[in-house]
Amino acid sequence: MRRILVLGGTSEASELARLLAAHGLCATLSYAGRTENPRAQPIPTRVGGFGGVEGLAAYLRAEGITHLVDATHPFAATMSANACAAAQLAGVPLVALTRPAWEAQEGDRWREVATIAQAVEALAGAPRRVFLALGRQHVEAFAAQPQHRYVLRFVDAPGEAPALPDHALVVDRGPFTVAGDRALMEAHGIECIVAKNAGGSGAQAKLEAARALGLPVIMIARPALPPRMEVHRAVDVLDWLDHAPPSGAERGV
């Protein structure tokens, strides 16, 4: 019997969970635990880390997992790298459900950088009103450029105020609309956007709004990951499940 572990926290993971449930497949969706109130899912869920590569490999063996799906955020580099290593260690086939990266369109004013640190450096200069569309993990790095007025958007209200001397906080959950993001940018007088190249449609509205307003975007490239099989649609995971090589659990190892 197939037992599937989905590493989630994205809209793609939720879509896959619905498909797996609809097909009656035995699956568990794992959250890292960064979101306080994740959406209800039609399959069992777990919350929290595994304890690195060895911990995840041990979990895969102990739970008899036969297939592993990495549907984490494109910037969850440590988790994705650990998943690749743990799957190999435990002899479990792995597929990544990923979003195609965004590409600049006509009218976009992107400055592409490789890292968060480079994005911080790119903000050197006169004070501006900056929309940090990054989530909460990397916000404190921008305290190195304290001259700006920052607008932050988080899924959950933080327990402590972000370490930025001048900021406004918006608590909201996507998917977002172009009209809504344009209104937010106009209301706060945004002059620049900093974003990760997360891809997908749920957060793309800010880029279309920036294009319409002629605003510059500092776009942070995705981190490098180990080679792995990738698909871009939840339905493709079902096809992979039917054709993936058997795991150690299925072989009786």
Draw up the topology in text.
Elements: E1 3-7, H1 11-22, E2 26-31, E3 45-47, H2 52-62, E4 67-70, H3 77-90, E5 94-97, E6 109-113, H4 116-122, E7 129-133, E8 149-154, E9 167-171, H5 178-188, E10 192-196, H6 205-213, E11 216-220, E12 230-231, H7 234-243, H8 248-251
Parallel strand pairs: 1-2, 1-4, 2-3, 4-5, 5-12, 6-11, 7-8, 7-10, 8-9, 10-11
Helix pairs in contact: 1-7, 2-3, 5-6
Query: How would you characterize the largest beta sheet?
Result: 6 strands, parallel
Unreliable runs: none
Largest sheet: spatial strand order: 3-2-1-4-5-12
**In what range is the share of β-strand residues?**
15-25%
Label the structural class. Answer: alpha/beta
Report how far the terminal alpha carbons are from each other.
14 Å
Rg from Cα: 20 Å
Mean of residue pLDDT?
A: 93
Given the C-alpha coordinates, what overall shape results? Answer: elongated
Count of helical regions: 8
From the structure above, extract its key features:
six-stranded parallel sheet; alpha/beta; elongated; 253 residues
Write a compact overview of the structure shown.
The chain has 253 residues and is an alpha/beta fold. The protein is built from eight helices and twelve strands. It has helices spanning 11-22, 52-62, 77-90, 116-122, 178-188, 205-213, 234-243, 248-251, and strands at 3-7, 26-31, 45-47, 67-70, 94-97, 109-113, 129-133, 149-154, 167-171, 192-196, 216-220, 230-231.
